[in-house]
Amino acid sequence: MIPMEKLGIGIIGAGRIGRIHAINLYRFFPEVEIVGIADIDLDRAMQLSREIDNKKVFDDPTALINHPDVHAILICSSTDTHTDLIIKAAKAEKDIFCEKPIALDIELIDEALTAVEESNVKLFVGFNRRFDPNFKKARELVLSGKIGKPHILKITSRDPEPPPIEYVKVSGGIFADMTIHDFDMARYLLNDEIVEVYATGNVLIDEKIMEYDDVDTAITVLKFRGGSMGVIDNSRKAVYGYDQRIEIFGSDGMISVNNKLEDETMIANSRSFQISKPLYFFLERYQEAYLNEMKEFVSSIINNSNPPVSGMDGKIAILIAEAAKKSLKERKPIKLEYQ
Ligand SMILES: NC(=O)c1ccc[n+]([C@@H]2O[C@H](COP(=O)([O-])OP(=O)(O)OC[C@H]3O[C@@H](n4cnc5c(N)ncnc54)[C@H](O)[C@@H]3O)[C@@H](O)[C@H]2O)c1
């Protein structure tokens, strides 16, 4: 639905990621009106509302979805709420931005994607790293043939600290919660599909994670349809901060993207060269990517274009995560037969 005046947006979930999107929309999008924020924790919604000119708060997300001034909905609540809210928004003919992952269960994802298709609304899945200018440039360089045929992709993706154990319990495990971004990044950077996954992992940081059938350190090996190979290395705890690097090696060269640092100052003396640590975590590291992501979402509605990250991208990332989980359990490579 293309709005005539301002684009009315409703935000569901006033937690870490809901706050980022709400503040970006409020500060940088004069063409958008935030109609309200819904959170089952009304105090949280009110706290966020105070930061954005006291926008209306709702404790019932359905009331916000059905509000007549809402053209589009941002789903930033916990993962287990996503598909129900997507279906409600689609039935109300509202365009949708949904945070990753769409869900942890493929059947639920399919139900949500069917509702989206039947209502002919837009669904944009929040793989924010695609909107990081350096990663975007790396993909463009690959696509333009600057390094010839890509042979090896390396993704380093390490968090500065593990999430609380309460989060681990419901996160769906490291592959569905954390590596999912890297699976999407791998497909995006090489513009190719992953056809085989082999994962190995261990609990090296916090033994409590073992109780939830999860690991905190993992290495995933990928094979792509076009013959390239990839390796993703994940850790839930890098003592020096959020470690997000990529390297793509090809027949005619190599592309790499390094960490963004707290500052660009370097000090050298007779013993060493010293630089600053990487930016602490995702909120700092991907600040620009979150803003660019919202620009693309708003523009896809106003210009009635296809969202650059589709529901199918969201589903494929979960299929790869499931295959990685299975590979870890069965200690063997798993083929992907999703297409
Ligand atoms: N793209 C990214 O970089 C990124 C980063 C963090 C989180 N996420 C995703 O965003 C989602 C939220 O994560 P978070 O870290 O902001 O979590 P959070 O716990 O900080 O916030 C979630 C909020 O949702 C609210 N909520 C729960 N059920 C609700 C419901 N039925 N209706 C309305 N509100 C409800 C909670 O009260 C809470 O305030 C998750 O799916 C997560 O995977 C994405």
CATH topology of the largest domain: Dihydrodipicolinate Reductase, domain 2
- Tell me the β content: 15-25%
Number of E strands: 15
What ligand species are in this complex? nicotinamide-adenine-dinucleotide
Separation, N- and C-terminal Cα atoms: 30 Å
The parts where pLDDT drops under 50 for at least 5 residues are none
Q: What helical percentage do the residues reach?
A: 25-40%
Indicate how many domains the architecture comprises: 2
Using the CA coordinates, give the radius of gyration: 20 Å
What is the succession of H and E elements? EHEHEHEHEHEHEHHEEEEEEEHHHE
Précis, in short:
With 339 residues, the protein is of the alpha/beta class. The protein contains eleven helices and 15 strands.
Give a structural overview:
The protein has 339 residues and is an alpha/beta fold. Helix 4 (82-91) packs parallel to helix 5. It has helices spanning 16-28, 42-51, 61-65, 82-91, 106-119, 133-143, 165-171, 174-190, 282-285, 287-302, 311-330; strands at 7-12, 32-38, 56-58, 72-75, 95-99, 123-126, 150-158, 194-202, 217-224, 229-235, 243-250, 253-257, 266-268, 273-275, 334-335. Helix 2 links the parallel strand 2 (32-38) and strand 3. The protein has 2 domains: 7-121, 3-Layer(aba) Sandwich (Rossmann fold); 130-288 and 317-335, Dihydrodipicolinate Reductase, domain 2. It binds nicotinamide-adenine-dinucleotide. The site of nicotinamide-adenine-dinucleotide (NAD) has 23 residues, from helix 1.
